[in-house]
Structure formats: structure tokens, C-alpha cells
Specification:
By secondary structure, this protein is α/β, with parallel strands linked by helices. The protein is built from 17 helices and 22 strands. The chain folds into 2 domains: about 5-235, P-loop containing nucleotide triphosphate hydrolases (Rossmann fold), CATH 3.40.50; about 255-330 and about 415-495, Rossmann fold (3-Layer(aba) Sandwich). Helix 5 packs parallel to helix 6.
Length: about 500
């Protein structure tokens, strides 16, 4: 075995994150790791990466006991982790990012040998069969799949025997994910082991040789992928629970949000418009680069619009800004929860009240008792798994962090919710809970705009679907017997447009 853990345990105060985990990865295999948010997957990854120290047990690497103290030590023995949150420097180009943590090549006069470094990076790219990755561009100008591929290039700049991928396709479309799968399969052929962590079961069954299931910090089983099925895996992952996805037909009320001819100053959004009514969930779907996120940011005031109009509850909304949007009962749930929605060093309580902090002050004095009371109420109502209001938000699983983001948004009592990838990288149960919350909010008379790169999710949650392509809104569907093929045909049609069943 390449990697083996024996009786591995990790605790945070009284919370047991991992309990007696015996886990193995063979040489040259793609090993899937699945479980609900909070099951212990991220904790295991961080122990292997040298971020956390184990409390009990041991790690065997190529048959020898090792103690991994730092990320640099993990990398030196042959392990590399590509985390769900990309660790590239936006202003650095591909060569500079690939050499992060490595010694630069030098000329005899001690000047940096950029040409030699560029050749080395291109050699790695060629060995991985990667195409269309411009290493002269800064990382901020690369597409999501290109940034993921650049992270893989960085990982393979040094000898890598085990590559750990944590939710690598969370923000990718199906077409973009195919680029990544090609690279993963090539790495396997070269003898690199892959630990593949995701909530997307179709990817697990497509790529992996074996699957390990975690639940509540305990390893449930490791099975051969070919000998199992999705129902068995989900049964091992979850408690006795069923999704409550059925609902009665709803009547929509008045138009709460109308957008006409929005174009962003940076040119990403070119001509976008839609409307959403009280009680309606409008799904917005488009391929990568279609401008979905940027459109929501223009409406909310995070991105500058050069033209167009926004109407809230029948009144024109001009010069939008985040603070002003909250005051007008318009809230944005960002795709990047760690970068834009949460402060990792603050507690659950402090994060929850960030957007409504003025409501808890009087004469400049914070009413902490009220903060705690409201936080406990939200923890209970949204079933947030935490040790309490004062637990640091970064210690929560991704799904529970996302629930805090949702709770924080609801603290402002919005009428219109702009939801950008609200279920990105959460488990099956949490995803269904967020869907049910969206439906309950719609039933209560709110208007919801729901953006997702997962077409199946849009078809499941939305009452109506608006297509975006190349920065423009195009076809509109009532979500009645609509197929994925119809929607994708409109997305790929580009400038020629598609069909509408309105």
C-alpha cells in the first residue's frame, strides 16, 4: 500500500472529527472518498497535508511510519493536495504560480532564469497532455478549469505519488470537467495515485477504482466501485432520511424584480434581462463564461453596470450598492462563500450578524445576549452542525458553512434572494435541505433567482428557467417536461439562439 492509516483520531475540544480510522490507498489507483459534510473528509485531508496534527494513531507511507508536521513536509514525501478553494496568487502568471514554494532557476549572475523556468513548466504541461493553458496570463484571467489544471501542474512540478483532489469540479460545467477527467486518467496511467473527494456520485462511479465512505467521523467501509451502486453508497453515507422534494403547485404573485438590458462596464455582461415574481424560483443556467455570476453582481451592486435598468417591487433601483441592496430587501448569496461571504477567523455568531450588525447596537454598545439568542435560533432552524455560537467558522464543514451563509442572508429579512451556486460542494442531505428552504421561502412570498452550474439541479428546483450565453439572456422555459438536451441545445446555440416554451 502507498498510504495507510491505523486508528487515526482527531478531536476539536469535545467534538470528535475522526475516530479510529483505518484507511488505505494503493499505488496507481483512483480512490473515491465520500460522505456528508462534517463526516471527516476534510479533516483527514488536512492531517495528510500537514495542516492538522493527529491526536491518536499512525500514518504509514510506503510501509514506513511518518509524522507529517507541515504542508512542505507532506509535499516533500510525495503528497500534494489541491484544495476546494484554489491556492493560486491572482496577480502571478502561470510560471510564477507553478513555482510557488520552489526555488527559482538562476543565471550565473544570480538573475532569475525565467526562460528555463518556463521550459520546465511547459514540459510538465506536455507530460500531462494539457491543452489551452496560457502560462503567460495571470491566474485571475484564467477560467475555472484552467486554474484547476494550473494547480495540478504546480503539484506535479515535484515528484508526486499521491494527488488529493478536493471537490475539483465544484464550479465547472460538464464540458469543462471533461478536460480535468482527461488529465486525471493520464496521471493514473503514469502511476500517480489519486484521492478523489466529491459529492458528485456520477464522477465517483466514472473515475474511481474503490470508494471509501465516512459518516460522523467514522469510516463505514471501503468497496470496489464495480461491485456497488449509488443507492448503497448513499445508504452508508446518511442517517435514516429521505428528501422531501414534492410540493404543491404555487401561484405566483406580483413582480418583485425586473431587469432590463443590463450590461457590465467590464463587458462580461452584454445584454441581460429577466423578471421574477413573488413565490417564484427562477433558475438561471448557462455554460462557463456565460456571465451568470457577473449579472447577479451587477444587480446587487458588486459590479459596475454601464447600462440597463433594475426594478424592485415596481420601482426603479438606481446606483446599486451592497448596503443599499440590503436596505431594499435584496440579498446576494455569493458563489465564493469563504472569499466573499464569511470571515474564517470569526465565530458562527459574529458571521451571522455581519450584515445586520446595526440591529444589535444601541448607543454604540452591542447586545451580545440578543446576538447569541438569534444565533441559537438559526442553528436550530437550519440544523447547523456546530459546537455552539462561538465556534470559529473555519472549523465547520463546507455544508455547515453554507448553512451559515444562508442564515446570514435571511437575517436581513429579504424579499428577493439572488442565489449563486448555493449548494456548491455540499452533500446530498444538505443540498436537499437548502432546496427545501428555498421552496419554503418561495411559499412565503419571496422571489428567488437560483444560479447553478449543475443542470440537473436547475431542472429539479426551478419553476422557470432563463438561459444565458455569451453575456446575454436568451431562451426562457417554463419548467414543465423540459429536458437537459433542450436546455443544453440552447446554451450551445450561441448567437443563433434556441427555442422557448413560454
Amino acid at each position: 500500500m502507498l498510504l495507510q492509516t491505523n486508528k487515526l483520531s482527531k478531536r476539536f475540544a469535545s467534538f470528535v472529527a475522526l475516530n479510529n480510522v483505518d484507511f488505505q490507498i494503493a499505488e496507481g489507483e483512483i480512490h473515491g472518498l465520500v460522505g456528508e459534510n462534517g463526516a471527516g473528509k476534510s479533516t483527514l485531508i488536512k492531517i495528510l497535508a500537514g495542516v492538522y496534527r493527529l491526536d491518536e494513531g499512525e500514518i504509514l507511507w510506503e510501509g514506513r511510519r511518518v509524522e507529517i508536521h507541515t504542508p512542505d513536509h507532506s509535499r516533500k514525501i510525495g503528497m500534494n493536495v489541491i484544495h476546494q478553494d484554489r491556492n493560486l496568487i491572482p496577480a502571478f502568471n502561470g510560471v510564477e504560480n507553478a513555482y510557488l514554494g520552489l526555488e527559482y532557476a538562476k543565471h550565473a549572475g544570480a538573475a532569475v532564469d525565467w526562460e528555463s523556468m518556463k521550459r520546465r513548466v511547459l514540459e510538465v504541461i506536455d507530460s500531462l497532455g494539457i491543452q489551452d493553458l496560457d502560462i503567460t496570463k495571470p491566474a485571475r484571467d484564467l477560467s475555472p478549469p484552467q486554474r484547476t489544471l494550473l494547480e495540478i501542474v504546480r503539484a506535479m512540478m515535484v515528484p508526486c505519488k499521491l494527488l488529493i483532489l478536493d471537490e475539483p469540479t465544484a464550479s465547472l460545467t460538464d464540458k469543462e470537467a471533461e478536460m480535468l477527467f482527461h488529465t486525471i486518467e493520464r496521471l493514473k496511467k503514469q502511476g500517480t495515485s489519486i484521492l478523489y473527494v466529491t459529492h458528485r456520485m456520477d464522477e465517483i462511479f466514472r473515475l474511481t477504482d474503490r470508494i471509501t465512505v465516512f459518516k460522523n467521523g467514522v469510516m463505514q467501509a471501503t468497496v470496489q466501485t464495480a461491485d456497488t451502486d449509488i443507492d448503497r453508497i448513499i445508504a452508508m453515507m446518511t442517517e435514516k432520511w429521505e428528501s422531501n422534494a414534492t410540493e404543491d403547485a404555487r401561484e405566483f404573485g406580483q413582480e418583485l424584480l425586473k431587469v432590463e438590458g443590463i450590461a457590465s462596464k467590464d463587458g462580461i455582461v452584454k445584454d441581460a434581462g429577466f423578471s421574477v415574481r413573488a413565490g417564484e424560483i427562477l433558475g438561471i443556467f448557462g455554460l462557463g463564461g456565460s456571465g451568470r455570476t457577473e449579472l447577479l453582481e451587477c444587480i446587487y451592486g458588486l459590479r459596475t453596470a454601464k447600462s440597463g435598468a433594475v426594478f424592485l417591487d415596481g420601482k426603479e433601483y438606481t446606483n446599486p450598492r451592497p448596503t443599499k441592496s440590503l436596505q431594499n430587501k435584496l440579498v446576494l448569496i455569493c458563489e465564493d462563500r469563504r472569499g466573499k461571504a464569511l470571515v474564517g477567523s470569526l465565530s458562527v455568531r459574529q458571521n451571522l450578524v455581519l450584515s445586520t450588525i446595526d440591529h444589535y447596537t444601541r448607543f454604540g454598545v452591542m447586545n451580545k445576549a440578543r446576538e447569541v439568542s438569534d444565533t441559537l435560533k438559526n442553528i436550530k432552524e437550519l440544523a447547523i452542525k456546530t459546537t455552539g455560537p462561538e465556534q470559529t467558522i473555519s472549523e465547520l464543514s463546507g455544508g455547515n458553512q453554507q448553512k451559515v451563509v444562508m442564515a446570514k442572508a435571511l437575517m436581513s429579512q429579504p424579499k428577493v434572494l439572488l442565489c449563486d451556486e448555493p449548494t456548491q460542494a455540499v452533500d446530498v442531505k444538505t443540498r436537499a435541505e437548502i432546496h427545501n428552504l428555498a421552496r419554503e421561502l418561495a411559499k412565503a412570498g419571496n422571489a428567488i433567482v437560483f444560479v447553478s452550474s449543475d443542470l440537473k439541479e436547475v431542472l429539479e428546483i426551478a419553476d422557470n428557467i432563463q438561459i444565458m450565453a455569451a453575456g446575454k439572456t436568451r431562451d426562457y422555459f417554463k419548467n414543465e417536461n423540459v429536458t437537459a438536451e433542450q436546455v443544453l441545445a440552447c446554451c450551445y446555440a450561441g448567437e443563433s439562439g434556441g427555442i422557448s416554451n413560454e
